[in-house]
Amino acid sequence: MHSIARIRAGGLARHWRAYGRIAAAAAPQELRATIGLELHIQLLAAHKLFSAASTSWDDRPNTNVCATDAGLPGALPRLNPECVSLAARAVLALNGQIQQRCAFDRKHYFYADQPLGYQITQQRRPIGRGGFLELGPADGLGCLKRIRIRQLQLEQDTAKSIHGVHPEYVLVDLNRAGVALVEIVSEPDIDTAEEAVAYVRKMQALLRHVGVSKCNMEEGSLRCDVNVSVHRPGEDRLSGTRCELKNLNSLKVIQGAVNAEIARQSTLVARGEAVGQETRGYNARDSETFPMRSKEAAPDYRYMPEPDVPEVHISDEWIARVRSSLPETPEAALARARAQYDLSQETVETLLGEPGCLEFFEEAALGRSAKTVSSWITSEVFGQLAYRGQRLAESPLTARQLTCILDALHGDAITPAQAKLLLIGYMDGESRGVGELVAAHGWEVISNDAQLRGLAEQLLNAHPKEVAGYLKGQTRRLNFFVGKLMQATKDQAKPQVASRIVKDALDARR
């Protein structure tokens, strides 16, 4: 009986979900959305915002914790100046104004992942105000659009709650507690899910480019909350009731969640029902948002000035030094690199998407084919980085080592297969030169035609059926013999030479 009830209940639930999607699709199209984003971005600082603990995100749980992070009585916070500098870089990169007097506040709320019982943040006097991010056709939009920034504030991250390990408890890892974040709050200038995704993607590229953050959503170094409301044309775009979507951890999830919430709110408005102000999550499997809790307002957090962290005063000279340390903007770098190296926009955007990669490329391309260098970086180097789960800045590979490999390959001192083995060695930390490694491994290129012809004749004699097939027009048999010859020479023959030798030997048997 209970099983039947559960089955019927499950079927009814699926029916209502399907009905909701149909109703959403049929919702009046004249309703428009107003969207604002809050991005929480972990800074590339070696130590936490108010303690000397490491910010390494993948160490064993509860190993990077100081007394301040754990909220132990009597432990006082001490501001890390590196975090202030990185936050200032973000403000300037976003065309904002650094506030020369900024201060910290306590934001009170009680969760297991908040050891202090409050978060130290910047509610009243953030480090940055104003600024903007411009989107356009290069970002996948049909027109130019400027998204204004309301403010950028420094704050502490929370600890990490771990569910599902113990049936009765939620575990807490304090390694992340106290890590420095910048929260970037946009104005509600975004109209669609596509614009929201373009904004986040461009913010990722910009902050990586200026060295502020890794911005890896899969690691949690960029987390996104989205505020969504709907309104009718002619109404104030802020007239709708705002709902916040929490814990959106990928660009695909952001797009799905925003579209689902716009559809949900549009359906309610079309029915004449009120949209409640609340915080919601997103179920990607069912493409639906779900309620988490009623939305808190500022008074609920009982903000108060942080008594243990002094007000920060920033001079014009300090701001000028930070500004002078910024690299050229991604737009300027894109235009310059395309013109200087005759590369496609896609290639340059790929190089710019990896922090420090454009500089690495330019050093390696000096006096060499820019297209050859960029091809090796975007295919072989990036392939190895992806396999190792590394960033280029974390790899021991230097531009000088890559140029030595390419020069040896261009001079016929090594084969493409050996070049790839050398690259792997350098990315493993090898320090010897190319010549030393070639000699140590016996990788000298076999360029003696007579020697290769002798090996090719042996192979043809050993595989008469394949030879007969080639002579009957099965030209793919050529690749079979080339592969066998490369195997016999342990990849010490150049593929082009091996192909020529084998073809000549086969054609001679006609």
Provide structural commentary.
- The protein is an alpha+beta fold and 510 residues long.
- The chain has three domains: 11-312, no CATH class; 327-441, no CATH class; 449-507, Arc Repressor Mutant, subunit A.
- Helix content is 42%, strand content 17%.
- The chain has 17 helices and 17 strands.
- The strands form four sheets. Strands 1, 2, 6, 7, 8, 11, 12, 13, 14 and 15 form a ten-stranded mixed beta sheet that branches.
- Strand 14 (278-283) and strand 15 (288-294) form a beta hairpin.
- It catalyses: L-glutamyl-tRNA(Gln) + L-glutamine + ATP + H2O = L-glutaminyl-tRNA(Gln) + L-glutamate + ADP + phosphate + H(+).
- It is found in: Mitochondrion.
- Subunit of the heterotrimeric GatCAB amidotransferase (AdT) complex, composed of A, B and C subunits.
